[in-house]
Design goal:
The chain folds into two domains: 171 residues, Medium-chain alcohol dehydrogenases, catalytic domain (Quinone Oxidoreductase, Chain A, domain 1), CATH 3.90.180; 117 residues, Rossmann fold. Helices cover 26% and strands 25% of the residues. It contains ten helices and 15 strands. With 312 residues, the chain is an alpha/beta fold. Helix 4 crosses helix 5. Strands 1, 2, 3, 6, 7, 14 and 15 form a seven-stranded mixed β-sheet that branches. Bound molecules: zinc ion (2 copies).
């Protein structure tokens, strides 16, 4: 076991309660991230309690916090413009440096985000992945009367389903896996279909592509109504085939979206602090951290939504 480092003046020590396993943790686990330096501790989606605070830290001992796990420089042109999510020097915890899957971690206090009193830990552990969704869904107008298709029901897809429903949209969910469509339906009224059921005239104002698979991305563009938008949330480095004339003639807007800013984190906390916001089905399992092997195996199976490690 690694020793927990000393707390410096600008840092806090956190006793971690829950940690959500994310797709990037799985890529680190499988050795698929070329710039990852092993041995590497994964983890970036955690909630815990401050148990020690450096003299300059504003968080008091006992404060519940989520971790903002993408460090940024604060000085580059993007940071100055408020877009810290595309900072040239940003570093994701658990990928470029050791992550926070541990019982105790020390981090820079500026990345320890206080959670309101009374918000259950099981919700607070969703702040980080949900902030990704909040940031993404700001790209297009989503609300009452707007038809939204969510393609792919990983955690990000399911969180996009939950938020789109909350915003009053008419939601359709598309996934190859019927098990995932069953999970999606527990969020509220919606249509569900498998990709082969999508017809030529199946079109939506907004298509949220959260599968990150070549065929799904290609199909997603075809599903956007003229004048509509596609939000590209799924990640792949594979090349895809688009016919530019289709995008141009139909005035389709395609938005890339990556992580979040501190404001998105605050907005995510606000949504999650509303007990009527139905998001709980996104957690499939909570597993003691000592069973991490089975937790990672289950996460890799693709048959679950979020799997959470309990560090108690
Ligand atoms: Zn994540
Ligand atoms: Zn920067």
């Amino acid at each position: 076991m690694q020793p927990v480092p000393e707390v410096k003046e600008n840092e806090v020590k956190i006793r971690v309660r829950y940690g959500g396993i994310c797709g990037s943790d799985l890529r680190v686990y499988k050795g698929q991230i070329i710039y990852a330096q092993y041995p590497l501790r994964p983890g970036h989606e955690v909630v815990g309690t401050v148990i020690e605070a450096g003299v300059n830290a504003t968080q008091k001992v006992g404060t519940k916090v989520a971790v903002f796990p993408n460090t940024y420089c604060g000085e580059c042109e993007f940071c100055i413009g408020g877009k810290t999510n595309i900072c040239k020097y940003k570093k994701p915890l658990g990928v470029s440096t050791d992550g926070v899957f541990a019982q105790e971690v020390v981090i820079d206090a500026k990345y320890a985000v206080p959670i309101p009193d009374g918000m259950p830990d099981k919700r607070a552990v969703l702040v980080e992945p949900f902030a990704v969704t909040v940031h993404a869904l700001k790209k297009a107008e989503i609300g009452k009367g707007i038809s939204v298709a969510v393609v792919g029901c990983g955690t990000e897809g399911l969180l996009a389903v939950a938020l789109s429903l909350n915003m009053g949209a008419e939601v359709t969910v598309i996934d190859v896996n019927p098990v995932k469509l069953d999970i999606a339906r527990s969020f509220g009224p919606m249509q569900t279909m498998q990709p082969q059921e999508v017809g030529k005239d199946t079109m939506f104002d907004v298509v949220i592509e959260a599968a990150g698979v070549k065929t799904a991305i290609e199909q997603a563009v075809q599903m956007v109504k003229p004048g509509g938008s596609m939000i590209a949330l799924g990640i792949t480095s594979e090349a895809v085939n688009w016919v530019p004339i289709h995008v141009v003639r139909n005035e389709i807007s395609i938005f890339g979206t990556i992580i979040y800013t501190q404001q998105d984190f605050e907005d995510a906390i606000r949504y999650l602090n509303d007990p009527t916001f139905n998001v709980d089905p996104v957690i499939s399992k909570i597993v003691p951290f000592t069973d991490f092997q089975s937790a990672f195996d289950d996460a890799l199976s693709g048959n679950y939504a979020k799997i959470v490690l309990d560090f108690k």
